[in-house]
Amino acid sequence: MTEFKRYTVTAALPYANGPLHIGHIAGAYLPADTYVRYLRLKRREVVFVCGSDEYGAAITMRAKKEGITPRQIIDKYHTINKNAFERFGISFDIYHRTSEPIHTETSQNFFLKLHQQGLFEVQESEQYYDEQAQQFLADRYIVGTCPKCSNPKAYGDQCEKCGSSLSPLELINPVSTLSGTKPVLRTTKHWYLPMQQFEPWLREWIVHEKQHQWKPNVYGQCKSWIEQGLQPRSMTRDLDWGVPVPLPEAQGKVLYVWLDAPIGYISATKEWAKNNGKNWEDYWKRTDTKLVHFIGKDNIVFHCIIFPILLKAHGEFILPTDVPANEFLNLEGDKISTSRNWAVWLEEYMNDFPQRTDELRYVLTAISPETGDSEFTWRDFQARVNNELVAILGNFINRVWVLVHKYFEGKLPGSGTIHFSDQSLQQAVEHTFQMLQESLESYKFKQGLNILMDLVRDGNKYLTEGEPWKKIDSAPEQVADILNNCVLLAAHLAVYMQPYLPNTAVKLFQMLNISPNDCYWDAPIALNGGHQLSAPQLLFQKIEDAAIEQQIQKLEKNKLMHTAVAPFKEPITYEDFAKLDIRIATVVACQKVPKAKKLLQLTLDTGIDQRTVVSGIAEYFEPASLVGKQVLLVANLAPREMRGIVSQGMILTAQDRDGRLVLVSPEDLVMSGSQVS
Predict the structure, then answer these.
(1) Cβ count near 339 (within 10 Å)
(2) Which residues are within 8 A (CB) of 512 and not within 5 positions of it... i.e. 6 or more apart?
(3) Best label site of 100, 274, 303, 376, fewest CB within 10 Å?
(4) Which residues are bridge partners to 187 per DSSP?
(5) Within a domain: 366
(6) 507 with 428, same domain?
(7) Do 274 and 224 have their domain in common?
(8) pLDDT 10s digits, 279-291
């Protein structure tokens, strides 16, 4: 295994065009933070960089939607997201901005170096132009049907449903998002990266060298992309918001966002190094530095193929050692969608559940989409917090502390350095240390969390079987031994949980009356007899049903507000409508139609007569529940025989967002036979 002197860890630059949700956190930022916290505990030299991606079409689209300038958009969301990351405890060394002058300079110099090497191919090509908006369309300003999965809302650069990287010309039935019109093709000039020239190198580097190093989902997507054959890709765009192309003949053009955004990692490192007396080149140009990108699966191609090609072509930079990309996190049976407000927003979570960031860190790690899509539900969140954090981890620590204070006034009994006297418990700690370290080194954070919780279960089992509360009078020395073992185990837990539950670890160190600054990953924890423990405090509180129900109702309300409804039918005249005779009718009897799963036979009082109506609502209503209800009846519909029963009309229903039928009824009780007009 290669020994690295330092680590450069990046987390995907979030677009500064909207707030963060738990899908973002689970996909890139939480695993990156867990890894970096572990590296710091190992006393490794590491820089953890991120920042706002503030250029490109996504920003201008949001600005147009909100009716403000791109600068106002990026200032707004950079501040919101930076504060959210800080509140949640994502421990970046720097959270930078791609709109900073140092980034413009770094990106332009990078482009010029490649240009001077003759790398780019200058081509005239046809690109989509919106005649109504009078501008060329960036990839994200074009939507159409994905040629690979038939998603009708694929963007011009990527299909977010199947993850395929696209070009606008591949879209079926493209439409401009600016005007809603079909764009036309016009000729324009751009600077292209000839990716096909790097295919032989990529095959050697990825297909052979990274096959057993990168996660299967990452390697598989890269291999598939290479096998399809690489094509030239434009590195410039006709756009008025971005890093200007630093060439006289390229006025009005900007660098492609997937050229300038990854360079944002470099410019952020430069800024950090300048402020901390470091040499930024050590972190990007030395082969004894390990470069790790944490991203979501929709960014794999850009970080594993396009950016490495650019770094390789430049010639002075190291290449990524690992790209542990995660898959997508879904929410309550549906994909997270910012446009439909189907998300758990990070800022809202922290407002609704103050001082409970570790609970969310725990659950998102436990369900992490490391190798496949996973799902967050509020009920599962509640169950994991209450049944695992509260009932297992919190319960173990609380039991131990209460007993030590009850029997020994909070002081560790005995004298001298305390060691594990129980061999099985000591072996469990040693095994956990080894397996947890292997998991964290290989980005298997979910596995590591399970290993950590298994050690807590071992502690609970040891304490329960030891039964010190039964032995305090007859065998006080044995009780002292049991509790010393448990406190020593708790001290190891405090160290091991720091990458996962940093705030809880701080609480536990406070209860241990030990400074966390003295406890590194591989440093032995010294506890002596007579050491005074601080008073017990609950590490976690149960989450009540009411709090969860409130979150579920919030999502349901959002779903209702953003549910797509059927389009209107063709217009009719008033005379057509006037032909309908809609009456209020009262259900006087109701029964299921034999051998018909969907049909009910209703007897209706119309105020003039009683008539039979057959309706396909049996899946949604019990017959007895309808008796006495008032309904809307189309009374002059021609009779129709259904299953041998003549149906004399139709009752009106509506379909809710879940496809369930509901009755359309008057709000107040009215006389049967009343006309609806």
Answers:
(1) 9
(2) 487, 490, 491, 494, 527, 533, 534
(3) 274
(4) 126
(5) no
(6) yes
(7) no
(8) 999 999 999 999 9
